[in-house]
Design goal:
44% helix, alpha+beta, 291 residues, 8 strands, 8 helices
Length: 291
């Protein structure tokens, strides 16, 4: 089973993470429906539960870039989803806490889509000064021990066995992972700024406004060059997007239609050809004048 270890260093993201663990961005209608684990949690109000983590964090000595709490994900294979039961999820939650050695920590554990298990874990035990860190060797041992347990207890989760099988490779869709990571960052940003538009949304609005005002894509690129703080940026000889305040935005991320991007590439290629023709004629004239 893939276990993702994430850490949060910003204590003010506690409320957001509690909401994410228990509601999955609003997709879980009953946050306290079983299976769920609330360990050393005193508040049972979704709006104030994060304060338990903030109060417990005060026992730790202040440290630059110190971890405030952990976000751990037990990722079960999609191929095993139909075999998962609620008692199985509860057992995996309890056993992970036991193998991780965090029986005295603050823990919130909840499954998303009746599959992956998300855990929010305090960086220290209840009212303790000692941090719950793990070395790489401890992480490796945890992965193998936990998988050995669920392989023996739940052999039907055969597609989720990866660490204890030698020479088995895990295929990864890096593009998809990066895209999901960007979506998560944008979601967290929107939570922080509320109804205000992000910089990417502002740039997208400016680009769309310019596109509506011009009839040709060549005019569109000219208008961009005239607009303050907007520039065209290229990659490997092709126009790829917009440069705004030294930050790059691809046309695809600004949701510019693909057919418009293809038009832009054709215009750029034509301009390059015209430039070469112009240079050739210029060179010919200089040679004739020099005779």
């Amino acid at each position: 089973m893939i276990i993702k270890f994430k850490s949060r260093k910003n204590i003010y993201s506690a409320k957001q993470l509690v909401n994410y663990i228990l509601t999955d961005k609003g997709r879980i209608k009953n946050p306290f429906e079983a299976p769920i684990i609330l360990q050393n949690i005193n508040r049972l109000d979704l709006k104030t539960m994060h304060k338990d983590f903030l109060e417990n964090y005060k026992y730790l000595s202040k440290r630059k870039n110190g971890v405030a709490f952990y976000h751990t994900i037990l990722a079960i294979s999609k191929k095993d989803k139909d075999k998962i039961t609620k008692p199985m999820l509860k057992d995996l939650m309890e056993k992970y806490i036991e193998f991780r050695g965090i029986q005295n920590a603050l823990v919130i554990a909840k499954s998303h889509d009746n599959q992956h298990i998300h855990l929010m874990i305090s960086a220290n035990n209840l009212r303790s000064k000692e941090r719950l860190r793990m070395s790489h060797q401890q992480m490796k041992k945890l992965l193998n021990d936990f998988e050995s347990y669920h392989k023996g207890k739940f052999p039907e989760l055969e597609n989720s066995i990866i660490h204890t099988i030698k020479k088995r490779q895990i295929s990864r869709d890096i593009t998809k992972e990066n895209r999901n990571h960007r979506k998560e960052k944008e979601y967290q940003l929107k939570l922080r700024i509320g109804d205000k538009k992000t910089q990417k949304e502002l740039v997208a609005d400016m680009v769309n406004d310019l596109m509506q005002k011009v009839g040709k894509f060549s005019e569109f690129t000219q208008q961009i060059q005239k607009t303050k703080d907007l520039k065209i940026y290229t990659y490997r000889g092709k126009i790829r997007g917009i440069l705004y305040l030294e930050r790059k935005y691809r046309f695809s991320t600004l949701q510019v239609p693909k057919e418009k991007i293809l038009q832009l590439e054709k215009v750029q290629e034509r301009l390059k050809q015209l430039s070469l023709i112009k240079e050739m004629h210029k060179g010919t004239r200089e040679m004739e004048l020099g005779r």
